[in-house]
Specification:
Layout lengths: L1 E4 L6 E5 L11 E4 L2 E2 L3 H12 L7 E9 H10 L4 E8 L1 E2 L5 E2 L5 H6 L3
Parallel strand pairs: 3-5, 4-5, 5-6
Antiparallel strand pairs: 1-2, 7-8
């Protein structure tokens, strides 16, 4: 599943989805490096649920998340386990976690 946030609208967009035929019978580890608002994560989780993966069979893992992002995901999917290494207080107007690490993809790929 590839979901990216549209830089103009701030909304997540599904770009790619290829899942095993038997995904409904698997335990899924869903990873997102940073969770700012939680919108992209919730879209990815919805894709899994739409393919009959039970919510309790999804482990969501991130490096860093904002408080609001964790709350949004946990409220929407209360049966799912969320694991992150750190939770920061806020998100700025560019959807970056504050203090956070900036845009993880830009830093990782050197595209900022």
């Amino acid at each position: 599943i590839l979901i990216q946030t549209n830089q103009n609208t701030g909304e997540p967009e599904l770009h790619y989805n290829r899942l095993p035929d038997d995904i409904a019978h698997r335990f899924v580890i869903l990873m997102d490096a940073t969770v700012a608002t939680g919108a992209a994560a919730m879209m990815a989780i919805r894709v899994l649920l739409d393919h009959d993966v039970p919510e309790e069979n999804v482990l969501f893992v991130s490096l860093i998340a904002s408080e609001s992002g964790v709350h949004n995901v946990a409220y929407a999917f209360p049966k799912m386990c969320i694991l992150t290494t750190a939770v920061d207080k806020e998100v700025n107007e560019n959807y970056h976690i504050i203090p956070g690490i900036g845009n993880f993809g830009d830093r990782y790929f050197g595209t900022d």
